[in-house]
Amino acid sequence: MSTAEWNSTRGRSEVLRGQIDSMMEDLRERTRLLALAQEKIALSTARAQSADGLVEVDVNASGAVVGVKFSSDACAKSTPKKLGASVLAASTAASADMRRQNAEILKPFTTATQLDLPDLIAGAPSVRGLSAVPQIAEHMEQDWDQTVLRSAGNV
Q: Using CA of residue 90, residue 93, residue 97, residue 103, what is the dihedral sign?
């Protein structure tokens, strides 16, 4: 290998090393930010009040009910059946708010503006679309009222 070829290869290696170092630093920063986002989500709660104002429900980050408060006159103004519906409605609203909060916290990590493999390596497959969940309807071609054994021809 000539000196010129050696220097060219060395130069390309240094450029590549710089790109890798930059990508590693970016990965470390994203990992740090993701840990902060996970901590924020873990400590998050959401609260919702029923439309009739008789019930207030708190949920944690996973949407599980962690608190229920009834107004002081809830039993006098309502029936057990209606209070149950109010609890359900407030719980549903609080869980929906929690999902919205979680999505907002994670938004920087779920946007498609991030670096992708083809940006780094020409001809490499894209990983941007890998997080997309296929629609269930696409996989429901067979008749699901048959048993597994029967549909496989075993019975």
A: positive
Q: How is residue 126 written in tokens?
A: 């894209």
Q: d(Cα 67, Cα 39) in Å, to the nearest integer?
A: 21
pLDDT for 126 beyond 90: no
Strands (E), the chain: 46-49, 55-59, 65-70
Q: Please state whether the predicted TM-score (pTM) of the whole model is above 0.85.
A: no
75's CB contacts (< 8 A; 6+ apart) are: 83
According to DSSP, residue 128 is labeled: G
pLDDT score for 70: 97
Q: What is the DSSP string of 85-115?
A: HHHHHHHHHHHHHHHHHHHHHHHHHHSTTS-
68 beta partners: 57
pLDDT band of residue 146 (cuts 50, 70, 90) is: very low
